[in-house]
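Margin note: ligand = iron/sulfur cluster.
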Amino acid sequence: MDHTIHLPDPFNLIITGVGGQGNVLASKVVGNMLMEKGLNITIGETFGASQRGGSVMSHLRISPRSGFSPQIPKGKAHLVIALEPTEALRVLKDYGNPKVNVLCNIRPIHSIGVISGDQDYPLLESLQKWIRELCEQAWFINATDAAITLGNPILGNVIMVGALAATRMLPLDRGRFESVITRTMPAAKVEINLAAFDRGRKMIDN
Amino acid sequence: MHIYGAKQLQEDVFGQDLCIGCGACIDLCPYFKSHNGKTTLVFPCDLSEGRCYAYCPKAEVDLDELSRQAWDGPYTGRSLGNFREIIATRAGKKMSNGNFQAGGTVSSLVASALKHHRIDAAILTDRDGLKPVPRRVTDWREVVRCAGSKLMVSPTLAAMNHGLRDGFSCLGVVGTPCQMTAVAKMRGNPMSKENFADPIALTIGLFCNWSLDARQLASFLSEKTDVSGIRGMDIPPPPANVMVIETGNGQLEIPLSEIKPLIPPTCFICLDMTSEWADVSVGMFEGRPGWNTLIIRSEKGAELVQQARDAGFLETGGMPVDTHMHLSNAALEKKQRSLRTLIRRELINNNNDKRSALRVAPGIVQKILGSKTERP
Amino acid sequence: MTDLLAHQEGARCLLMGNEAMARGALEAGVNVAAGYPGTPSSEIIENLANAAQNGRLYVEWSTNEKVALEVAAAASFAGLRSLCVMKQNGVNVASDFLLHLAGSGTRGGMVLVACDDPGALSSVNEGESRHFARLVEIPLLEPGGFQEALDMMKWAFALSEKIRNIVMVRSVTRLSHASGNVVLGPLPGVDAQAVFRYNGNILDPMEGPVISMPVTAKHGLQQKKLRQAVALFDASPFNTYTGPDAPEILCITASAGYLYSKEAIDLLGLEDRVGLLKLGTTWPLPSRLLAKYLALTHQILIVEEVTSFLEDNVKILAAGMGPEIGVKTIFGKTDGTIPSVGELNPDIVIHALLKITGVDYQGVPADYTQRAETIADTGAPARDLTFCPGCPHRASFWSIHMALQMDNRQGFVCGDIGCYSLAIFPTGFSTLKTVHSMGSGTGIASGFGKLGPFGMNQPVLAVCGDSTFFHAVLPALVNAVHQRSEITLVVLDNSGTAMTGFQPHPGLSVDASGNAVPGLDIARICEAIGAGVRVCDPFDLETTRQTLFDLLESRGGVNVLILKKRCALSPERKARKDFKMSVDQAVCLGSNCGCNRLCTRIFRCPGLIWNKEKKMTEIDEVICVGCGVCASICPSGAVVKKEKA
Ligand SMILES: Cc1cc2nc3c(=O)[nH]c(=O)nc-3n(C[C@H](O)[C@H](O)[C@H](O)COP(=O)(O)OP(=O)(O)OC[C@H]3O[C@@H](n4cnc5c(N)ncnc54)[C@H](O)[C@@H]3O)c2cc1C
Ligand code: SF4
Ligand code: SF4
Ligand code: SF4
Ligand code: SF4
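Resulting structure:
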């Protein structure tokens, strides 16, 4: 079924979230899955602030060619995966365009300014409306809540990878996921990650 | 009474060097803390109205309002405030001997009130070396431990706030006139809390002309003696002109001229010498060591004194007219002096949104400033 | 971390720039590697330390960068190949030794990797290490991609052995921390023998004593070798040209700038008009190569990060070659075509090219951008950096702030570099008032503490981390004690170099590769130096504050308070929540007078939620790590902590 997917060259994917959500892992997993597919991958990321409540972003450049910049040029994202909804807006501001697609986890993580009351966190309905307005196609799922039912909120990132596979925006299949996860993770964690991947896949209906 | 928040308290009181460190704002919330005699706002608070401002005796004190609340009438400016009787008193036989400042009247009244369950706890001021330490006392036999004046600013009212938080609803408080002002403001329920029941059952005010800055005194004395060994201090009546410090190894006399620079500037805007808002007020008896001057102001105060005398806690005596007049003159002089400072510093009766430390009817200001001290 | 030894020759892997460099060093047969953690460099040593568990390779996290360079130099002097790794400002620390090392020369191949951080993504400076190569006269290489990061390391070792001097490889965050596809080369067998020879002639680079004297003779030798390097650079495969034979514009670039430039030219469709000269050897410049390409056109654009290093050096060369290549117009930092602060990206290069060529480009329709900006401004509240939930630093700075405020003598805290630098922000109650280099807080405090005779009577505090303590605080502390400076040093001991990912340091009893080593006791060291020492658990707020009062009021010299608690992200603490937290809604005072949201408004732990509708505080179960500290600050006892079974 993969051959039905036509990728622009390069395909620019941004995975965004808040420090501690497992952004880096998600981009590594997706990158490795695609590399095993024979594609060339460049991942640019900043994780200096990653564990301290800051916004985190990974830029994935996916192409049969190589040598792309680790930063996507402004306005050139094809797909944004947001592990947190306000982060989607932040990314769209710089990298969005009318044709961009968005896959978004709707569980908010309040910034410290919101916790302190200096800032307001928008209503979820507004967030969804804005994201829809700024993209061509959007999927919203509550990956964090699903992850909690699996026993650990951190699995939200892998659920998002599963959901991404189900959107069929990129050639990602379960077998590839399994092989990457088996190679890169301790054996004890493979099963729960597979469960998370499957849960994510089921959350996208198409 | 106008009420503002911590930000304004910071500006009005700290910003103008008016904080006396009474403790009224301490530990009402997490923001005001006292350490070594200094009160600090440790984190900003952005509420526009708060109890810190509402209780502070140096911010928007409206004497008419306090007077109406305490005596059902406007503030008259009388030198000694509203009172029923002035008598001489000292500790009765029932009281064990303590390191009393003078006659031990305060300790005796507090002990009697506790013994007879007029109050369930007393808010007193103990000492740790030189340092005054607020103390909550529930056993009448322990009252004497807090005897003796610490002639310094003490955050005593913090202990009152702790008492309220710990559920005490029948407290007795001993304090200086500024502290009595804060207590009076608090008892007026300025924040209009629903179901407010006045938790203060008794107020015993001290006379006070001025006090000393605790930190400055400590650093001043630490150059002369070991401050941890200090047991008491006194300012004997004129013409002595010294402050006497009792230490483990004898007395230390320090000329008042060296001490006076340690008076915090806020004492020079203070109108009240005799704790006019208290149930009773106690001071020295000039010329008769071992005795106190006691001003009985409220009905509650009168009952307290009566009971203490009947139970052998208090001994009473007459008050010569001369002594009364002397006291009255001293109190008037303090009022006049402080009013002039308030006016000069633009801290009184300001209009147009400019906040004030004090509000008094302008006619009363004129009356006080125009009064003459009496000659016997 | 990737297991760099797991893959065979020819395998295609997705490697981080730092991993590629580490693999390159392994393929070069590196024997000894040393470094000091610092973002974005740390993963190189980490990966090598991991590899060291399975092979004949010694890897250490040294006390500081200067010591790391010395440790690595020893291996080179003994004929081994050695690597030293640090972030940009680490090179400053190492530079004293670096100058002398460049003068004495090396034996076994020795490479210094410096990872710069343009834009200060995780630094408090965007200092440049490139200038050191020129300053101490050693070759400088800059990889412009992931494969190159690997290949260049091998080349650097060989070069070092050719010229018998240290070679510097400079990376940047966007390469070190980015990942790309890399094809691995073979791993050599390791059979190196370490011998230090010193009986030969003083001028004999391989047999004599290793010193920089006689200075002018050695210096001359060093420069001669450097000229040999230039000849090699002229033919280096790392210097490439792509573009037309007669370009209108020649873009000269290196490092990540190459990737940005390539992307920009591609997006603008300027392949026929702009030539791209990518340099891998950036000091000394390959002059013949440059002469050839500079001659192609008179418009030159130089793309580099951060300062005008390449630009200045190209200008000097071009001036010297004027008669041969003609007069050039050079666009870059000096004329403002490229900003001279911050990091680059493809769009900056796009705009530079637009300015020179005048072509038209719009990445996105303007109305989209405008709308997206409006929405993001209202819809995406900024995320300020904060201490993690459960971070000991939040508790420590709470107590320090409180003690200083209550002490009320305008006391202040001098800080330095670590997670705790965040205490300049509200997350640390804006407690830090100076932040500079490693250890500088203590040195500055030592100076402040001597200003009493000039009327300064504010209490002076310094803070440092446990790793920083060994790195650069020790000399400052010795100074403070010796000079009778009146200061209090608070050591925020979270048992690891948390900011950069828990690398061990001399205070811990485990080394980079997990072997048991003697851990040094900070308290005993401070006592031995002559400071008064106290140790507290920062989560015990009351005791910590009281101890701080004691220290602030104690007269006489230097006091040290060690606040000891593991970092919230440490594997030990991450594994378990100590408490299950909840808020008793009946007790919470919320925004009423009496609390006014102390927990969410001031304490600001990310694990708390302010429920605007209910006007109550709640615990965010997903984020709260159950440290229990918010229960200690709540004035009403509304926060309840239940011991976890
Ligand atoms: C700062 C200060 C200034 C004073 N100035 C004068 C004056 O100018 N003229 C005059 O006649 N009297 C003055 N007094 C009052 C006087 O010193 C005696 O307190 C009073 O005469 C009662 O004596 P006593 O023997 O009954 O007290 P004791 O029975 O010894 O009891 C003293 C009581 O005073 C309380 N106390 C002690 N120190 C403080 C303090 N710093 N703040 C609040 N409460 C405290 C204690 O709780 C204790 O209960 C002053 C008192 C203070 C504290
Ligand atoms: S307004 Fe209330 S909560 Fe704020 S500082 Fe004053 S007393 Fe505290
Ligand atoms: S209430 Fe008392 S301690 Fe508080 S600011 Fe006013 S005078 Fe100072
Ligand atoms: S003079 Fe007034 S302000 Fe000063 S301590 Fe006495 S009562 Fe308080
Ligand atoms: S500190 Fe306590 S009382 Fe105040 S808002 Fe937080 S939970 Fe409620």
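DSSP finds 22 helices and 24 strands in chain C.
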